[in-house]
Design brief:
- There is one protein chain.
- Helix content is about 30%, strand content about 10%.
- By secondary structure, the protein is of the alpha/beta class.
- The chain has a 13-stranded parallel β-sheet with strand order 3-4-5-6-7-8-9-10-11-12-13-14-15, with no helix packed on it.
- α13 packs parallel to α14.
- The longest helix has 12 residues.
- It is globular.
- The termini are far apart.
């Protein structure tokens, strides 16, 4: 085949795992990632596997010739398809088997994505070696690479992100969640040098306080630089240092945002949400869970997204009351998902207003809202017939009567959480009879 006849003249990385991995013995490998590896993991460079050489004086005729392995009978395109299911570290291992596998393992179609996981892996070196090999045919540029996932790799530093920024101009998706050693400067380099980046996950990166272009890129693109970052999906969960000013900068530069997750960004206030809505009018999904300073005034700003908003999470925002819920319900009529768990200021009046205005609601979490009772559930059941997921965990005022009304009207209910609620076994059985596909999470030992 064309692949097996390819001439290789440069060494390449073939291993991003220790050589004596227990899960890869006797020629059989598992698809597990390198996160299960103990000890330090680095990227090793080696030459292509040599062809078999025999000395002219050595006669091998006396030995029975081994039959060709079954997998070697597969055509190249089938082997490439199989390799496409392997994580990066195992794909590099396959390159060590023989020359044919070496050629197949480095087929450009297999390198649209790099996935490295594990706390021990030397990610900076691995990325450097991999990008060097992938740049072999196109010097200094990895034109095929579109996704890099190095979540949980705590040894990733700015050096690794610099490598990605310089070598991967076609990058569209970057996930570095849990990599707490990276800083703003490295992230700025990536978004500045990768103009097609659409998906960025920096959750758990506590040093990241902003998303912006580098100063050099801003000067070149001025005055339109604010519209040059094409990020649509941004996850900044657990970026504890993010403040309103940082969110202002993010909104001004990432005007195309449609999905934004700010869970546990505890320093954000209503003022930051005002900036967000001014610049990012296309947001469909927004989470400000556990942002304790967000109040009804913040929800009034969020409501300006109007019918574009489909997903909203305000869980454990203790300053939110029925007033904020009314704002959202009045203007965001196409809302499909609402998580208001732990918002103890919400009552039956808020649920009623929500049910009458957001009739297409499919998922609702009002757990730990002690002021919501059967009255609110009745209004919900009579208006939101498409409800599929409902969580009432720790709602002290809910009884079996309210559950029966829900079950009698919401036939498509798939998940119901009534843990720590005082509901009878009869009510749970009633739900099961009317909503046959419903999975009930409960704490009643008499119901099974």
């Amino acid at each position: 085949s064309d692949l097996s006849m390819r001439t290789l003249s440069t060494p390449s990385p073939a291993l991003i795992c220790p050589p004596n991995l227990p899960g890869f013995q006797n020629g059989r490998g598992s698809s597990t990632s390198s996160s299960s590896i103990t000890g330090e993991t680095v990227a090793m460079v080696h030459s292509p596997p040599p062809t078999r050489l025999t000395h002219p004086l050595i006669r091998l005729a006396s030995r029975p010739q081994k039959e060709q392995a079954s997998i070697d009978r597969l055509p190249d395109h089938s082997m490439v398809q199989i390799f496409s299911f392997l994580p990066t570290n195992q794909l590099c291992r396959c390159a060590r088997v023989c020359r044919r596998w070496y050629n197949l393992a480095w087929d450009p179609r297999l390198w649209r994505t790099i996935r490295l996981t594990g706390e021990t892996i030397n990610v900076d070196r691995a990325l450097k070696v991999l990008t060097r090999r992938l740049c072999q045919d196109t010097p200094n540029v990895c034109l095929m690479l579109e996704t890099v996932t190095v979540s949980g790799c705590r040894r990733l530093t700015d050096r690794g992100l610099y490598t990605i920024a310089q070598c991967c101009p076609e990058l569209r998706r970057l996930e570095v969640s849990g990599c707490y050693n990276i800083s703003n400067e490295a992230v700025f380099d990536v978004v500045s040098l990768c103009p097609n980046l659409e998906h960025l996950d920096v959750s758990g990166c506590s040093k990241v306080t902003c998303i912006s272009l580098t100063r050099e890129a801003s000067i070149k693109l001025s005055p339109l630089h604010g519209k040059q970052i094409s990020i649509r999906y941004l996850d900044m969960t657990d970026c504890f240092v993010l403040e309103d000013e940082g969110l202002h900068t993010i909104a001004a530069h990432c005007t195309q945002l449609t999905h934004l997750y700010l869970r546990r960004c505890v320093r954000l206030t209503d003022e930051g949400l005002r900036y967000l809505v001014i610049y990012c009018a296309s947001i469909k999904e927004l989470s400000v869970s556990d942002c304790r300073f967000v109040s009804d005034f913040g929800l009034r700003e969020i409501a300006k997204l109007e019918s574009r908003l489909r997903y909203l999470s305000i869980a454990h925002c203790g300053r939110v009351t029925d007033v904020g819920i009314r704002y959202v319900a009045k203007y965001c009529s196409k809302l499909r998902y609402l998580n208001a768990r732990g918002c103890e200021g919400i009552t039956d009046h808020g649920v009623e207003y929500l049910a009458k205005n957001c009739t297409k609601l499919k998922s609702l979490d009002i757990g730990k809202c002690p002021l919501v009772s059967d009255t609110g559930l009745e209004c919900l059941a009579l208006n939101c017939f498409n409800l599929k997921r409902l969580s009432l965990k720790s709602c002290e005022s809910i009884t079996g009567q309210g559950l029966q009304i829900v079950a009698a009207n919401c036939f498509d209910l798939q998940t119901l959480n009534v843990q720590d609620c005082e509901v009878s076994v009869e009510a749970l059985r009633f739900v099961k009879r009317h909503c046959k596909r419903c999975v009930i999470e409960h704490t009643n030992p008499a119901f099974f």
